[in-house]
Amino acid sequence: MPDTKNAPKAYPPSADMVANAHVTLSQYGSLYSESVSDSEGFWRREGGRVDWIKPFTKVKDVNFDLGHVSINWYADGTLNVAANCVDRHLATRGDQTAIIWEPDDPKDAAKHITYKQLHASVCKMANVLESLGVRRGDRVVIYLPMIPEAAYAMLACARIGAIHSIVFAGFSPDALSARINGCDAKLVITADHAPRGGRATALKSNTDAALLHCKDTVKCLVVKRTGGQTTWIDGRDYDCGEMMLEASDISHPAEMNAEDPLFILYTSGSTGQPKGVVHTSGGYLTYAAMTHEIVFDYHDGDVFWCTADVGWVTGHSYIVYGPLANGATTIMFEGVPTYPDASRFWQVCEKHKVNQFYTAPTAIRALMGQGKSFVEGCDLSDLKVLGTVGEPINPEAWNWYNDVVGKGKCPIVDTWWQTETGGHLMTPLPGAHEMKPGSAMKPFFGIKPMVLEPASGEVLEGNDVEGVLVIADSWPGQMRTIWGDHERFEKTYFSDYKGYYFTGDGCKRDADGDYWITGRVDDVINVSGHRMGTAEVESALVAHAKVAEAAVVGYPHAIKGQGIYCYVTLMNGEEPSDELYQELRKWVRTEIGPIASPDLIQWAPGLPKTRSGKIMRRILRKIAEDDFATLGDTSTLADPTVVTDLITNRMNKQ
Ligand code: ATP
Ligand code: MG
């Protein structure tokens, strides 16, 4: 890879890290073998992470055959997820902080919520939900900013056995009404306004607009976050704060079956129309708790910060369910990385003495573009482990994260997983594995990744192979269905490659047997007969000092079949020029080889991204093909004007 030329190829964990880690290399080896050779025995033991009301006797009942797909874990056990995340810690750590809430404006005070306080709030919220008629199995849509009430609402649903579906607060009224109707929700929980980056989104008026397109019976519970003005419909809208003041703080947790749904959550929509992923209770919680503890090497007393929003699966598993099941202290951050300035993440790390920090490549690239002075002013000496998730991380960004943020002493867990998988499937473990910039390295326990030849589906054995990534066996955190559309579930994940869970991602197993995610299968391009993941060309471009971000797609090319079309965002202060255009072409040619030479470069002041921050290459592909009329589902696009600008530039051929 271009930018690792002068750096060591792999970074071993420090002796310190190895000495204290939950899992060392030799333990990984023996546990991993056990987890795949005696899957039942392994997961029976791990099921002990959860407090069961009625213990399970059956561990696993799974069928991946098309037409009969069904996935069950711990199916005859009963439990309550909220009791596992809250009540069971009261005796031993009732006064420990469960959630540190860091508000958007650093001038406002952070809140430290103990497990006891969390318990009282969750019970009150559970009683509020019941008083509004929410019952076991009912759906509740949560459309809230990153405030403690979002966690209370999730756990209150879990407590009474209702199914939550969180809609990220950045979504429009249309996306919200589609999701309320999609799961036939009885109630939507929202706030008056959502402060973020110094601006406030009018969430309640978005909700009002959404509810115009929903059943009249849908009720609306409103958290007053700013106290700003909203319209109010008596009999439909309820004041959460007032009701919680009056509600009892005694609430009996419902006894739920392990396979009762816990939540519905839509995927990011990077590759098409979002899918309503269903996760259930016992297996999901076991897997979220286990991965949180082992992948981040979380120890009692550590402060854990995942910067995601609870609107994404990362926020579900690694802000709320995983950390709280483990009795951790978890940070909920309301703001954005660049407000008031690009030092905010690092200010928060210093202020709360963060030990594990987990973010996305999009944030790292954005902060890298601002220069390292924002990091250097902050004391990051408490950091032990860094994590990344969401997209392949370019080695350039990885190196910056490692050197500038981690000061070369914090292992980086590059966690590959999906909304569908509930928790991490591949990642290096901090005290066990070497790290290679950009590689997801190793399967987690119980995960059997296989690389297949895309066309024939033939299993590619051995090392140094590249193809599509499938998983050969189930794990407890796996999704169970698409809400209301089991057929789409089977078709999407089990029809292309018989008997396997198809991830939709491309993958390479290198000469050492380590895994690299090469991007979406749809994003693989074929240039003059050479198959190429777009991630590699993007990484080469990002490694150039003047390039902040790049997205690469294929487009029809008369001679090569597909040509390489690059959208390039320059670093702050850099200007596009013909010289730079030629220089970048030459750069990629020398870094990767003539076959990867860009055919076209379009300067892109911004790239189209999902609201979770992922580049939407399918839209870029359409623009490169001059097909502006059918861009596909754009409902999860963060900023539609980016697309309009790119189309205008494309039409003017810059
Ligand atoms: P949709 O399924 O609707 O197209 P999406 O796949 O972006 O949207 P998510 O579940 O949020 O929805 O994202 C999962 C995908 O993100 C993975 O399939 C993979 O392509 C990418 N991804 C996540 N983490 C990593 C990582 N560490 N390295 C590489 N890719 C990653
Ligand atoms: Mg996906």
UniProtKB/TrEMBL annotation:
Q: Which domain of life is it from?
A: Bacteria
| Source organism | Roseobacter litoralis (strain ATCC 49566 / DSM 6996 / JCM 21268 / NBRC 15278 / OCh 149)
Q: Where does ATP bind?
A: 390-392, 414-419, 505, 520, 531
Give the AMP-binding enzyme C-terminal domain ranges.
536-614
Q: Name one GO cellular component term.
A: cytosol
The gene is: acsA
Annotated coiled-coil positions are: none
Looking at the record, the residues that make up the AMP-dependent synthetase/ligase domain are 87-474
- Identify the residues that bind CoA: 196-199, 314, 528, 589
What is the designated name of this protein? Acetyl-coenzyme A synthetase
Q: Does the keyword Metal-binding apply?
A: yes
